[in-house]
Design goal:
10 helices; 13-stranded mixed sheet; 13 strands; 346 residues; alpha/beta
């Protein structure tokens, strides 16, 4: 309920009097943020550089904006170039007894976090989690990574970086533009002027006009498209159209669950929505309903349901479609970071 309250405050038109009342706390938060960044830039706090290029993917706001899908896309793009990718991330919610820790598709979600298992499942990258992003990056390089991608690492200044990509939800933009707790921002909007690239994510078919309500900044567009569903038990693949004509349950424990539910509805599905808080641990009770209707969920949630999956449970695959100009700018950034391949000329 608290999540819903703040979402309405930050991204709605109601309760703005409360945002004004919280403004002094936002000023204090902003001062701390500015002093911390200045301390790293001046050398008071040390940033640690590793022996390989580092690309940071992050955002200046809280909540889901599509960082993980972009990380998956970038890791697979680099792999297609013949580059061994290493991905580092916090492993939110993980309770491992040692850090840093390498993650595989079979790693326990409770120990390493849902996003880490998803990244290990969807990419051939070396995935390492831990609270110290610099130590994680050193470890992933030791394991053979030729480039390091830091997922949700924009504010982790202890890890020196060669490239920064900021991700913004195109519909929600920067919300009311205020810093926490009066608004959704971790850093001021001006922080976007210092990154190498801004990617605006949206769901296929979402209304164009919604973005203008919240001051979405300029950037390259990346459209998330739901493509098909995969059975958690058998691995069977079905088009989403196969679920039309009867109600389905939809489960999402992500930063913006409504975006998932609306995307399913745009595919013509009759959705009975079951939102959960972001990264919520899921149990058999969360997928137990009064009927035998299919249960569709995000891939991030599916990795948590594998231990108790039955034939009703399906993971919905989402692919990112980046604009041609966005692909060109990403390619230019990668060309800058990676050494040119050796010439075969004699």
């Amino acid at each position: 309920m608290l999540d819903v309250f703040f979402q309405r405050l930050w991204y709605g038109r109601e309760r703005q009097w409360l945002a004004v009342a919280l403004a002094p706390l936002s000023w204090i938060f902003g001062l701390i943020v500015s002093l911390r960044r200045a301390a790293f830039r001046s050398g008071v706090f040390r940033s640690h550089r590793v022996a390989r290029p580092v690309v940071v993917i992050g955002n200046i706001s809280v909540g889901g904006v599509g960082k993980t899908p972009l990380t998956i896309w970038l890791a697979n793009e680099l792999t297609a170039r013949g580059v061994q990718v290493g991905i580092v991330l916090r492993g939110y919610g993980g309770r491992s007894d040692h850090w840093p820790r390498r993650v595989t598709p079979e790693s326990p979600v409770a120990e390493v976090g849902d996003e880490a298992v998803l990244l290990a499942s969807r990419t051939p990258a070396i995935v390492v989690v831990g609270p110290d992003r610099a130590a994680d990056a050193r470890h992933v390089v030791e394991l053979g990574a030729q480039i390091v991608v830091s997922d949700d690492g924009l504010q982790h200044y202890r890890l020196a970086r060669d490239c920064e990509i900021a991700v913004i939800d195109e519909q929600r933009g920067v919300g009311n533009g205020r810093l926490l707790p009066a608004g959704p921002l971790r850093e001021p909007r001006s922080r976007l002027s210092s990154v190498d690239l801004v990617i605006l994510t949206k769901r296929a078919g979402a209304e164009e006009s919604a973005a203008r309500n919240f001051g979405s900044p300029a950037g390259e567009l990346a459209v998330g498209r739901l493509t098909h569903a995969i059975s958690l038990v058998s691995g069977e693949v079905r088009p989403l159209a196969a679920f039309r004509g009867a109600p389905v349950h939809a489960l999402a424990a992500i930063g913006n669950p409504d975006a998932f539910f609306q995307a399913l509805a745009r595919e013509g599905l009759a959705v009975d929505a079951h939102p959960r808080r972001d990264h919520a641990a899921l149990t058999p009770a969360d997928v137990r309903f009064d009927d035998d209707a299919p249960v569709l969920m995000t891939e991030k949630d599916a990795v948590k349901c594998r231990p108790f999956a039955d034939a009703r449970l399906w993971a919905v695959r989402m692919e990112l479609d980046i604009s041609p100009s966005g692909r060109a700018r990403l390619a230019a950034l990668l060309d800058r970071l990676l050494p040119a391949p050796p010439s075969n000329a004699r």
